[in-house]
């Protein structure tokens, strides 16, 4: 039975888990993909959970003061989640973003009452391709702004509220909806929070579940690969950061690489076959899962997250050129 909520914050989480049988049939692979529809959160992404977890943790331990400004580096999704949480909790919010990120994300943050500071990319970077170097420029700007405004830095790459939101929420929800019948989990990493939280939750319940880190081809730092393509089209992750804090002491059963073209094609197939309108990283997850079902995990059941909505990429080549 539906219940009356006191704010939209209470609508975060408990998203549906859906079988992608039409997609696997059209792709010609044997097995099952279970997709966690995180794009149905209020901010249209999984990062609503991280934002809620970070702010709740900071309010509990007193590091966030009443009415204090919140600042965060973001590709847009965490910023959207924080804009929602801050609007409800009464905190001004400033998102610091690379100009390489899709403009739809910045527009949504502004619509939710947030302020957006856009940071220039490196001279050799292109719009739509945010590298680790571009992210470092955003980090420097976020640090300066935090000091200038005596703000609380949400710091999604380091604050435990990020991965814990998936450990207590996303992971158990996947397990329960699947009835514990899982063989694998794949996740395209940005901060690594989703991978860490879900993997820990699943492996506590069944250590035999194989969990795979997904990265862009040519920027697979976590896998220990040489960085040959720091600029890539899969926004929201793949920043070629080899030592992500959340991945320390978290088991990894394998590392998978996906090209921007594979991610795009998988996202388009997902939309056409299942009516699920995801973004680039969602496509990367689907492409990785299809690769496993076509090989090492043929006939098995793999869970993944639909990270955000395709509405955030309408200006990019993910959806441009469709006829």
Describe the structure.
The protein folds into two domains: 8-45 and 160-313, Rossmann fold (3-Layer(aba) Sandwich), CATH 3.40.50; 47-153, Rossmann fold (3-Layer(aba) Sandwich), CATH 3.40.50.1100. 37% of the residues lie in helices and 15% in strands. The protein is built from nine helices and ten strands. It has helices at 21-27, 47-61, 77-89, 103-111, 132-148, 161-178, 193-205, 260-274, 280-293; strands at 17-19, 32-36, 70-73, 93-98, 115-119, 152-153, 184-188, 210-216, 254-258, 301-305. The longest helix has 18 residues, at 161-178. The radius of gyration is 18 Å and the shape is globular.
Helices and strands, with pairings:
Elements: E1 17-19, H1 21-27, E2 32-36, H2 47-61, E3 70-73, H3 77-89, E4 93-98, H4 103-111, E5 115-119, H5 132-148, E6 152-153, H6 161-178, E7 184-188, H7 193-205, E8 210-216, E9 254-258, H8 260-274, H9 280-293, E10 301-305
Parallel strand pairs: 2-10, 3-4, 3-6, 4-5, 7-8, 7-10, 8-9
Antiparallel strand pairs: 1-2
């Amino acid at each position: 039975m539906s219940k009356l909520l006191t704010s939209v914050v209470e609508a975060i989480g408990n998203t549906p888990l859906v079988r992608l049988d039409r997609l696997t049939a059209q792709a010609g692979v044997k097995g099952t993909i279970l997709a966690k529809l995180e794009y149905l959160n209020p901010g249209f992404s999984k990062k609503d959970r991280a934002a809620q977890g970070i702010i709740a943790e900071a309010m509990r331990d007193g590091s966030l003061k009443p009415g204090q400004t919140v600042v965060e580096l973001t590709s847009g999704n965490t910023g959207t989640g924080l804009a929602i949480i801050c609007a409800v909790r009464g905190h001004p919010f400033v998102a610091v973003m690379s100009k390489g990120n899709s403009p739809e994300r910045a527009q949504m943050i502004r619509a939710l009452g947030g302020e957006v500071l856009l940071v220039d990319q490196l001279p050799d970077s292109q719009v739509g391709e945010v590298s680790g170097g571009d992210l470092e420029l955003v980090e420097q700007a976020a640090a300066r702004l935090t000091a200038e405004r005596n703000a609380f830095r949400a710091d999604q790459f380091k604050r435990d509220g990020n991965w814990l939101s998936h450990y207590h929420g996303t992971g158990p929800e996947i397990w329960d909806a699947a009835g514990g019948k899982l063989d694998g989990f794949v996740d395209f990493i940005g901060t690594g929070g989703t991978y860490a939280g879900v993997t820990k939750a699943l492996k506590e319940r069944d250590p035999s579940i194989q969990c795979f880190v997904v990265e862009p081809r040519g920027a697979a730092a976590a896998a220990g690969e040489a960085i040959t393509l720091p600029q890539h089209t899969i926004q929201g992750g793949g920043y070629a950061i080899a030592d992500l804090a959340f991945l320390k002491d978290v088991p990894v059963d394998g590392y998978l690489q996906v090209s921007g073209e594979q991610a795009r094609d998988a996202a388009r197939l997902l939309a056409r076959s299942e009516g699920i309108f995801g973004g680039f990283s969602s496509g990367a997850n689907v492409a990785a899962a299809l690769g496993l079902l076509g090989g090492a995990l043929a006939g098995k059941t793999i869970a993944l997250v639909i990270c955000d909505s395709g509405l955030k990429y309408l200006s990019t080549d993910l959806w441009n050129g469709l006829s």
